[in-house]
Amino acid sequence: MTGKSLKLCAPDPVAFAPYGAFVIPPDQPGERRFFSDALIERPVASAPVLHVNFVQPLTLPMSVARIERHPHAAQCFFPLDVSRYVVVVMPSDADGRPCRDQALSFLVPGTMGVIYHTGVWHLGATVLDRPGHFTVLMWRGDAPQDDVFLDIEPLTLIDAD
Prior knowledge:
The protein is mostly beta strands. 2% of the residues lie in helices and 48% in strands. The protein contains one helix and 13 strands; from the N terminus they run E-H-E-E-E-E-E-E-E-E-E-E-E-E.
C-alpha cells in the first residue's frame, strides 16, 4: 500500500463533532437519545429517503482513494447487521476540496451509528470481518445532485494495534 498511513482510532465523539455525531445507544432502560438536530439542514423541497444497503467486507490494511460528500443534506448510517466498520472524515479547504492531510479515521462497532453533517467529506460505507447491512437516512429533493464523489491521493488505513 502506498500513501499516507492513518491509524484507525476508537470512536471519539468530541474529535468527530465537527463532522457529525456517533449514534450511541442509551445506557439505561427507558432512556432516549435524540439526534433530530442533525436532520434540520435540508433542501426546502425535499423528503426523507430511507434505504438499506448491503456492503461486502474489506480487510486491513486498506487503501482509500475515493471519498464522497452530500452538499445539501446530512447522511445517517444505522447498522442493522454489522460487526465493525470504518469511518474516515476530512475537512474542506476554502475552495471546498478535502484536506486529506487532516483526515480522521475511526473503527466503529456495529452497535453504534454515524451521522455525517451536510457537506462533510467521508469514506463510503466500509465494513470489516463479514458482509454488513446498514439502514441509511437522508433528505432528497429538487436540489442539485447531492452525491459528489472524488478520487484522492490514496490513504492507507491501518489497525491501531
